[in-house]
Design goal:
It contains 1 helix and no strands. It is rod-shaped. 36% of the residues lie in helices and 0% in strands. It has 45 residues and is mainly alpha-helical. The N and C termini lie far apart (31 Å).
Length: 45
Amino acid sequence: MLLLLPLLLLLLLLLLLSASGAPYRSGKAGRYNPQGGAHGCATFL
């Protein structure tokens, strides 16, 4: 049960990021992420 907690938190974070309409979630290269979404969320750090 303790192992599921970080997994649930990560899933919730991903849901929040995708719900906010963040441009870096897209896999296609665009104005906000010229490299494309190959690194996922790592492009906005």
